[in-house]
Amino acid sequence: MSENNFSINRRSSVGVRVGSIMLGGGAPVVVQSMTNTDTVDEVATVEQVAQLARAGSELVRITVNSMEAAKAVAGIRARLDEMGCHVPLVGDFHFNGHKLLTSYPECAKALAKFRINPGNVGHGKKRDEQFATLIETACKYDKPVRIGVNWGSLDPEMLARIMDENAASSNPQDAKYVMREALIASALESAAKAEEIGLNRNKIVLSCKVSGVQDLIMVYRDLAARCDYALHLGLTEAGMGSKGIVASTAALAILLQEGIGDTIRISLTPEPGGSRSREVIVAQEILQTMGLRAFVPLVAACPGCGRTTSTYFQELAESIQAYVRDEMIVWRGQYDGVENMTLAVMGCVVNGPGESKHANIGISLPGSGETPVAPVFVDGQKTVTLKGDNIANEFRAIVDQYVSEKYPRKVV
């Protein structure tokens, strides 16, 4: 339910427990991410997993692609637990997962979920045997599985079969339709095989990821209508920077608005030196701005215009946003409901006072030619006027005081 009192009717799906996290079954949409470290490097992987968890990733996936990586998983789990980071780990398997999971049982035990791609588990008879081994291992250790089909790695035999069926049809469809149908068929047929082998429906998550916005929307609408498995959403190879953010938001927002999706990942390519946690923040912001979940206090800020020739309000808005995100790590453990707080940092008298009154805490900075004072509003009431060179620190102190006074402390 959002603050505007509208609701999104979520698609009904079977709930899947991944460690301490519930996917589907009416649970809130879960944010997840993936490391880009070499899993063999335990120290680097632990550091990045912890960073992603602090940013708000509720599940973290790691690559398990070699014997050395499989050997490292249990140590990674132990190191994380020692530092108090209990985020569930998902193992990402391609090509040789059947060998790694059976050869290294400690790896299988340490992971909270397995991710497998039916297009990358072998061909012909070997595919069936190796897929069965993966599913049997999941059953043995009571682990859920994401059956993740990707546009770029479809099972060629299935694709050929569907292409032949389409060609023989009295009303053949275009190539893109065939590809979409092959994705969905691969996911659903693999899920059916997993159930035949013994994996319960409440241990299965499906995904059908592509890199085109319209294709993703059409695939998931169809997939959602044809099953009740929990669904993982994500635009694969979304790209870098604004392109990746815009494309992911355009696709996922439409599906989420239609109630489709139980967990999401924003697959951003980090810019050189950029933080991996950026994709976590984007995922949270999509869910929060849509009114589906709340993670951190939202900061409203005007874009600036000729009335605001100073960049001070931009700098203050940026610093406040960074401040509340950093402080939220502490506040989350101490107070209930802080994530619902709203802040406003406005740059002139046109919309400044009005917007500030609508936020829990708002500040209206002076624009060009205006009196050099900044009124602060708390829950709609003007409480103080700031001026001078210490406005940023004074405003942060007001935020801290509001949090400590307005939100109930958690019982430890």
Automatic annotation (TrEMBL):
This is 4-hydroxy-3-methylbut-2-en-1-yl diphosphate synthase (flavodoxin). Its cofactor is [4Fe-4S] cluster. Its EC number is 1.17.7.3. Residues 16-283 form the IspG TIM-barrel domain. It is an enzyme of class 1 (oxidoreductase). Pathway: Isoprenoid biosynthesis; isopentenyl diphosphate biosynthesis via DXP pathway; isopentenyl diphosphate from 1-deoxy-D-xylulose 5-phosphate: step 5/6. GO terms for molecular function: 4 iron, 4 sulfur cluster binding; 4-hydroxy-3-methylbut-2-en-1-yl diphosphate synthase activity (ferredoxin); 4-hydroxy-3-methylbut-2-enyl-diphosphate synthase activity (flavodoxin); iron ion binding. Binds 1 [4Fe-4S] cluster. GO terms for biological process: isopentenyl diphosphate biosynthetic process, methylerythritol 4-phosphate pathway; terpenoid biosynthetic process. The gene is ispG. It comes from Nitrosomonas supralitoralis. Converts 2C-methyl-D-erythritol 2,4-cyclodiphosphate (ME-2,4cPP) into 1-hydroxy-2-methyl-2-(E)-butenyl 4-diphosphate. Keywords: 4Fe-4S, Iron, Iron-sulfur, Isoprene biosynthesis, Metal-binding, Oxidoreductase. [4Fe-4S] cluster binds at residues 302, 305, 348, 355. InterPro entries: Dihydropteroate_synth-like_sf, IspG_bac, IspG_bac-typ, IspG_C, IspG_TIM, NO2/SO3_Rdtase_4Fe4S_sf. Belongs to the IspG family. Residues 299-400 form the IspG C-terminal domain. It holds the Pfam family GcpE_C. It catalyses: (2E)-4-hydroxy-3-methylbut-2-enyl diphosphate + oxidized [flavodoxin] + H2O + 2 H(+) = 2-C-methyl-D-erythritol 2,4-cyclic diphosphate + reduced [flavodoxin].
